[in-house]
Amino acid sequence: xxxxxxxxxxxxxxxxxxxxxxxxxxxxxxxxxxxxxxxxxxxxxxxxxxxxxxxxxxxxxxxxxxxxxxxxxxxxxxxxxxxxxxxx
Length: 88
Known about the structure:
Shape: rod-shaped
Number of domains: 1
Largest sheet: 3 strands, mixed
């Protein structure tokens, strides 16, 4: 009987871990790149990204310079709004 309960507890823990992993993998987040007046060249300015994945920065130019962004976007874990980095 003890062995039965040990197996039952082990199966319960495994199922809980699998359920938790499935919930985390299905999360998606919106990432928006706001160029604040930069000239759009290419890429997606709004993206839906899987939790933990990276976004791809669109290309914008302002005053003949490519814009860089104020936040990292290689590991998305929440909704994000990115703006140009530095003085415009």
